[in-house]
Write a structure and sequence with these properties.
The complex is a heterodimer. By secondary structure, chain A is mainly alpha-helical. Chain A has 3 helices and no strands. Mean pLDDT of chain A is 64; it is low at 38-51. Chain B is mainly alpha-helical. The chains are: A mainly alpha, B mainly alpha. The A-B interface holds A 1-5, 7-12, 14-29, 31-33, 35-36 and B 136-137, 198-200, 270-271, 273-275, 277-278, 281-282, 284-286, 288-289, 292, 331, 333-337, 339-340, 343-344, 346-347, 350-351, 353-354, 356, 379, 386, 389-395, 414, 417-418, 421.
């Protein structure tokens, strides 16, 4: 039981240190697609803005 | 789709139907974790099963489930999550039918292994499909409901298993999956939209799948059998050494293939690392404690498996009630503080359990059981939301698979560690006067309980 207690207490420290306090939302799929295709997102935005 | 279905399922309510379908299937997987344990004595009688084959009725499911979770998640990303989910449900349901009809223990164990494979293909899908169906700001609420349903299934598993075994027969605990599986397939067909990772092709990293699966099999097998074979035995040492070599080879291969099975880029995100670490830690602590308490209540307080299962209800009922609230809280204030509060409560509860002495009764332990339930609920659902929100929806399948894999392996480590400590302590001390039966029981527990504890070998989400 002491082992489980120590492990859970370590979890408190890890959660406090690593997990974001703000609400984190991942980048939209468009950004992922652009990255995987090697196209900078700004370029896509420019093309879209140009119509 | 018929006109009636179109009226029933609209764009506005589709996400709720999706959540319902996923919860339905999750209920079945989680129920199967706890429903079988109480039926083992009946299975032993009917099939003339040895203790070893009974153990493999449990371990076969745990092993195939744990080692294929990441693969199931990734294949869902590649070929479509709905497709993998439905395939998993069909496989699980068919294996449930063959388990119910099993004429001998070998057939039963093979069916349980296939059930585990089906569960591994559907489990990551339940979370990734929900992640895809709900916008990020509503995911906490949805994942909280998902976690609550899982706790409900775990809670009623021992009771339902006990009722069915006593009144119908042990086969009924497997046949009950048939209507649930058919319902989940129908709901998924009509309500769930297909989604996949559009950033990758249909390429499968077979080398990565093979190395991760064999490495995890060696590791989980070593953890499951460590107390039985002996931690220093050549078999266990070879399995652990083999798993280390296979994991190293896996990392080397993944860094050099074009479409890796596990993208290590996921681990560049601090929140994702934090969430999977917390997943490992909380299931390590929780399942290790559950394992110990199940044995303590049966072998020292003298409860039957069913009676012991009932006494875990305060924890699971608290998880069921608090998890949806924790999900909403996570949507409002972010995941960090609910997780920190939850793990603090879990630590406090575990500390209270360290105070167990000769005269301890169940009533003395009740506050610790309640605190444990609140703590786990506050941790689990924000932790899952944090992990899923830290990656793009395109990577939801593999993220869900990796998260589930860390939970499963954490739980297996927890049970193995507590079991090893129990065995070593029971062997070290001679029985004090008046506690002979307790120490004898403890020794028996350390090696292998006659009747496995009525708690899950798999963690609640």
């Amino acid at each position: 039981m002491w082992l489980s207690t120590a492990v859970a207490a370590t979890g408190v420290v890890i959660a406090f240190t690593l997990i974001e306090s703000r609400k984190e939302h991942a980048p939209p799929v468009e950004e992922e697609l652009a990255e995987s295709a090697g196209t900078p997102l700004a370029e896509i935005a420019t093309v879209q803005a140009d119509g | 789709m018929t006109r009636h279905q179109a009226r029933l399922i609209t764009d506005a309510n589709r996400k709720w139907w999706t959540l319902g379908a996923m919860c339905f299937a999750l209920f079945m997987i989680m129920l199967d974790n706890t429903v079988v344990n109480v039926a083992l004595p009946s299975i032993q009688r009917d099939l003339h099963a040895s203790i070893s084959s009974l153990e493999w009725t449990i371990n076969g499911y745990t092993l195939s489930f744990a080692v294929l979770l990441a693969t199931g998640g990734r294949l869902g990303d590649i070929f479509g999550r709905r497709r993998m989910f439905i395939g998993g449900v069909v496989l699980f349901t068919l294996a449930s039918a063959t388990a119910g009809f099993a004429p001998d223990t070998l057939s039963l164990v093979i069916s349980r292994v296939v059930q585990g494979i089906g569960a591994a293909f559907m489990m990551p899908g339940t979370l990734s499909i929900i992640t895809d169906a709900f916008p990020a700001e509503e995911r906490g609420k949805a994942i909280g409901t998902w976690a609550g349903v899982s706790a409900l299934a775990l809670a009623i598993g021992p009771l339902l298993g006990g009722f069915l075994t006593e009144n119908v027969g042990w086969q009924a605990i497997f046949f009950i999956n048939l209507p649930v599986g058919i319902g989940a397939v129908l709901a998924a067909l009509f309500a769930v939209r297909e989604s996949r990772d559009e950033t990758v092709g249909h390429e499968v990293d077979y080398a990565g799948v093979a190395l991760l699966t064999t490495g995890l099999t060696a590791l989980v097998l070593a953890l499951v059998e460590g107390n039985s074979w002996g931690w220093g035995s050549p078999g266990i040492v070879s399995l652990v050494a083999g798993s280390v070599i296979l994991f190293a080879a896996f990392v080397a291969v993944e860094k050099n293939v074009r479409a890796p099975m596990v993208e290590f880029g996921l681990f560049a995100n601090r929140t994702f690392i934090g969430a999977v670490s917390v997943a490992f830690i909380v299931t390590f602590a929780m399942l290790g404690m559950f394992f110990f308490l199940a044995l303590y209540m049966q072998n020292i307080l003298g409860y039957s498996p069913l009676e012991a299962g009932v006494r875990f209800l305060p924890t699971t009922l608290m998880v069921m009630t608090v998890a949806p609230i924790a999900g909403r809280l996570s949507d409002r204030i972010g995941p960090r503080w609910p997780i920190v509060a939850g793990l603090s409560l879990t630590t406090t509860s575990l500390f209270m359990f360290t105070q167990i002495g000769d005269g301890t009764t169940y009533t003395d332990l009740l506050p610790a059981f309640i605190l444990m339930g609140i703590g786990v609920a506050l941790t689990m659902s924000p932790m899952s939301t944090a992990a899923m929100n830290s990656v793009s929806t395109a990577k939801a399948g593999i993220a869900s698979g990796v998260l589930s894999m860390f939970r499963m392996v954490g739980g297996t480590f927890g049970v193995a560690a507590i079991g090893a400590i129990f065995q070593s302590e029971a062997g070290r001390f001679s029985p004090p006067v008046g506690t002979r039966s307790s120490t004898h029981s403890a020794t028996r527990c350390g090696s292998r309980p006659q009747s496995p504890p009525p708690v899950s070998s798999s963690p609640s989400p």
